[in-house]
Amino acid sequence: MDASSSPPLTAQSTAVELAGITKRFPGVVANHDIHLSVRKGTVHALVGENGAGKSTLMKILYGMQKPDEGTIAVDGEQVSFSSPADAITRGIGMVHQHFMLADNLTVLENVVLGSEKLYGIGGGARKKIKEISDRYGLNVRPDVLVESLGVAERQRVEILKVLFRGARTLILDEPTAVLVPQEVDALFDNLRELKSEGLAVIFISHKLGEVLSVADEITVIRRGTTVGTAVPAETTPRQLAEMMVGSELPTPETAESTVTDKPVIEVEGLTAYAEGGASLGELAEPTGAGLVTEAKAETAAAVRRVLDDVTFTIHAGEVMGIAGVEGNGQTELIDALIGLKHADAGSVSFLGEEITGWPTRKRREQGIGYIPEDRHRHGLLLESPLWENRILGHVTERPNAKGFWLDIKGAQEDTRRIVEEYDVRTPGIDVTAASLSGGNQQKLIVGREMSHKPRFLIAAHPTRGVDVGAQAAIWDQIREARREGLAVLLISADLDELIGLSDTLRVIYNGRLVADADPATVTPEELGSAMTGAASGHLEHVAESAAPEDEAR
Predict the structure, then answer these.
(1) What is the residue-wise DSSP string for 44-90?
(2) For 168, phi and psi rounded to 5 degrees?
(3) How many Cα atoms within 13 Å fall on the side-chain side of residue 367?
(4) Nearest CA among 541, 505, 538, 537 for reference residue 521
(5) Along the 553 residues of the chain, how does pLDDT read in single tens digits?
(6) Residue 179 and residue 347: Cα distance in Å, rounded?
(7) What φ, ψ does residue 324 adopt, rounded to 5°?
(8) Strand 405-406 and strand 456-460: pairing?
(9) 16, 32, 71, 302: least surrounded by Cβ within 10 Å?
(10) Helices of type H across 137-180
(11) Helix or strand or coil: residue 277?
(12) Is the peptide bond before 286 cis (omega within 30 degrees of 0)?
């Protein structure tokens, strides 16, 4: 598994070549003497632990940062980029993990935005979009609003957008992070079409099984430098992971059930309407004991329910996983449980006490932990130091507080403990959260929440963007806390994670819990089918609840 096993590279066959790339930041060497050669007509995977230097390297290739040392060559010619515009001009395109699309614009408008000079904004642009879409099997609809698209469709729009600008080398950052198995298969078909046309794809992912299935070559980065190149046919996910971490990985233990009969969180009939939508109660006539007229019932039926009569119980020592394509009510459910928003109907009880009206702070103080799905919006203050981020959500609790006073020294000392215990790669606790890689930001959040020994943990995508070593460590932390009686609601786009960690597994679709699955027997493919609304053999489907108009009448 080294570079000598790869086909020889020539100036004619090489799409991009980075040689001796070094990039330093205050207190950190992000990249040191990195070498990367990507051939035309191939998918070249780039893997490494969080903080290994992958993101910095790709920012350099895309012109977002300049290297301190080293050279970049495109099509055999040495280049120097001062901005992404320079990289785009030389045929380098990047699809970021967090999509850069305007929801209130159509697909065509998003694709053309900033590139109007290429093909105009009318017929010429439409013709080019159709040509690219057909050529690479992207199946993009130019006239629909982006806000109406699913995650997989948005990703195809992003790919089309960079192809529209003439990209011949595509950088894809964690492209399968939020896709179900069927969508991953479709994406890989798209990538095969791209490489069959001679394009090069740089594929960044922590999902090593997917890397091995789609890549032609794999470059491994560890601690900021390249440690070798692997050929997929000659390696396994475990061998690849050990190259990444530099040591053997422990063999996972078989987990025994820890589920008790003590309810911790009880949710009953939780219902919420889309932002701005009226509830049935609000539509009722002021007279007639709250009767709803037929006309108003039809209006209510048209109001979309983002949560539809959601009911479940999680017991001490139980992990309940919820599988679903993003946008099917997971965010609204999390918001209702942590108190960021209140549902239109239903109740939430915690340890036998109804908490439906409690504010977020009280829920946190009473023992509800929260790993948010969007770590930048709800988990961190990006421009604040790590020790201040350790305080977030726990400002009244030890070691962050002594009585009514903030205990800065205590918070700083505990931040150092979290950094060491959770292997947060950082030069110190005084650097900003923004200076950490996404995976290290996530490890800091997980360490913060687990440090307060919660009774109930809302874990939304707890290992998204985290490398295999850190993923295993986070799983172990959750399992250990579960053995001590922690109840967990686990929401994840990683179906292997859901199946491997959950004691009970539910499927959410259009705001409704539609099926139960046995983690011991269900496959990712069956789970993926249920998530898209299709029936599956090993899943027990929940009875359909009454339609809104039936309830109204």
Answers:
(1) EEEEE-TTSSHHHHHHHHTTSS--SEEEEEETTEEE--SSHHHHHHT
(2) -115, -15
(3) 15
(4) 538
(5) 443 344 444 445 899 999 999 998 877 788 999 999 999 999 999 998 877 888 889 999 999 999 999 999 999 999 999 999 999 999 999 988 777 888 889 989 989 988 878 877 788 888 888 888 888 888 888 888 888 877 778 888 888 888 898 889 999 888 887 777 777 888 888 889 889 889 999 999 888 888 999 999 999 998 889 998 889 988 888 888 888 877 655 554 545 778 899 999 999 999 998 764 443 334 344 433 344 444 444 444 446 788 999 999 999 999 999 998 877 889 899 999 999 888 899 999 999 999 999 999 999 999 999 999 888 888 898 899 999 999 888 888 888 788 888 888 988 999 999 999 888 888 899 999 988 887 889 899 999 999 889 999 999 989 887 777 778 888 888 998 999 999 999 998 888 889 989 999 999 988 999 999 999 888 888 888 888 776 544 566 554 443 334 443 3
(6) 31
(7) 180, 150
(8) unpaired
(9) 302
(10) 151-164
(11) coil
(12) no
Q: What class is the 1-91+168-175+189-246 domain?
A: alpha beta
Longest dimension (CA), the chain: 82
Kindly tell me the number of DSSP H helices and DSSP E strands found in the chain. Answer: 21, 23
b/e per residue, 269-290, with b = 16+ CB within 10 A?
Answer: ebbbbeeebebbeebbeeeeee
Query: 256 exposed, middle or buried (CB, 10 Å; 0-12, 13-18, 19+)?
Result: exposed
**Residue 149: how many CB atoms within 10 A of its CB?**
20
Q: How many CA atoms lie within 13 Å of 388's alpha carbon, on the beta-carbon side?
A: 11
Q: In Å, how far from its chain's centre is CA 489?
A: 17
What whole-number distance in Å separates Cα of residue 151 and Cα of residue 326?
7
Helical ranges in 197-345 per DSSP H: 208-214, 237-245, 280-283, 294-302, 330-338
Check: CB of residue 510 under 8 Å from CB of residue 327: no
In the numeric block, the tokens 């992207």 are attached to: 138
- In this structure, are residues 83 and 160 in contact, taking their beta carbons and an 8 Å threshold? no
Tokens at 126, concatenated: 């439409």
Alpha helices by DSSP H, listed for 246-370, are 280-283, 294-302, 330-338, 360-365
Please tell me what DSSP assigns to residue 5.
G
> How many residues in the chain?
553
- For residues 344 and 161, what is the distance between their CA atoms, to the nearest angstrom? 39
The full set of domain ranges for the chain reads: 1-91+168-175+189-246
128 with 164: CB under 8 angstroms? yes
